[in-house]
């Protein structure tokens, strides 16, 4: 693992220019997708301020969950941390090998077989062909797709594609894991199986930043949370504390119960909800 794995952002902003913003509906469309606010840059170009004044300091061992409504900016933040988006203003410095797991379809080809896509998806995530071949049997067993893995990906259902992608991404050893829980297209039994593998993946990672609408899953994988609202960090704190502010007492009480159960299983004092 790279020495001193870390994420440092200082006042980072991400703007998307709207070069033809004559209609209100167009502005609303961009705003809804980006989650920020409408403004103008120094060149007087209309922009969506997708992220504003993001300051983070994460080190090895940190497990951070992101909460917020759809379009709040969680996915944009993950893409900033992955280096896909450069900050328009401010700075972002990432030290360590990043595994972005927030678009399970990226790096996959519908015209080739599932087996070939396992290799390609692994290459996209920084693995070598030799590494992926060594993991092939284990990944294939996890997917439960059998002979379908010999068929072109275009013949797969959405859920089958997710199985292939999940098998690959949960087989790697990342230094920085950026995870967006977009795996809802699989059946409940396979979801349980996938979550067990995700938990093991998190244990192998140096830093985790995880966006999810499942408070229970956040409580299982993360120690702290950020509430992202209209492109800004509205609150940072313990999982229970942030969920209480964002969703209310009932949701927070459920998180408290999940954390307490985990700590009882592990024989730990109840400190994570603070």
From TrEMBL:
Protein's UniProt name: ABC transporter ATP-binding protein
One term under GO cellular component: membrane
Keyword Transit peptide recorded: no
Family named by the database record = Belongs to the ABC transporter superfamily.
Q: Which organism is it from?
A: Rhodococcus aetherivorans
Biological classification of the source: Bacteria, Bacillati, Actinomycetota, Actinomycetes, Mycobacteriales
Q: Report the residue ranges that make up the ABC transporter domain in this protein.
A: 21-255
Keywords assigned by UniProt?
Answer: ATP-binding, Nucleotide-binding, Transport
Provide the GO MF annotations for this entry. Answer: ABC-type transporter activity; ATP binding; ATP hydrolysis activity
Q: Which Pfam families match?
A: ABC_tran (PF00005)
């Amino acid at each position: 693992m790279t020495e001193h794995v870390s994420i440092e952002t200082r006042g980072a902003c991400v703007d998307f220019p709207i070069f033809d913003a004559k209609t209100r509906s167009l502005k609303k469309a961009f705003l809804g997708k980006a989650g920020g606010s409408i403004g103008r840059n120094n060149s007087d170009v209309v922009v969506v301020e997708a992220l504003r004044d993001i300051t983070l300091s994460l080190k090895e061992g940190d497990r951070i969950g992101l909460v917020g409504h759809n379009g709040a900016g969680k996915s944009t933040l993950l893409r900033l941390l992955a280096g896909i988006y450069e900050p328009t203003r401010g700075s972002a410095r990432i030290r360590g090998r990043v595994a972005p797991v927030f678009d399970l379809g990226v790096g996959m080809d519908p015209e080739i077989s599932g087996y070939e896509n396992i290799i390609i998806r692994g290459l996209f995530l920084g693995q070598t062909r030799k590494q992926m071949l060594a993991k092939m049997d284990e990944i294939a067993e996890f997917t439960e797709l059998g002979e379908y893995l010999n068929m072109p990906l275009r013949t797969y259902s959405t859920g089958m594609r997710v199985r292939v992608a999940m098998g690959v991404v949960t087989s790697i050893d990342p230094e920085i894991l950026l995870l967006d829980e977009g795996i809802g297209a699989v059946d409940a039994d396979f979801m349980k199986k996938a979550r067990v593998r995700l938990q093991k993946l998190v244990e192998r990672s140096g830093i985790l930043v995880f966006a999810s609408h499942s408070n229970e899953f956040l409580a299982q994988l993360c120690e702290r949370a950020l509430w992202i609202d209209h492109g800004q960090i509205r609150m940072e704190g313990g999982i229970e504390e942030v969920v209480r502010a964002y969703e209310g007492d009932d949701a927070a009480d459920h998180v408290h119960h999940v954390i307490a159960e985990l700590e009882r299983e592990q024989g730990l004092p109840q400190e994570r909800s603070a």
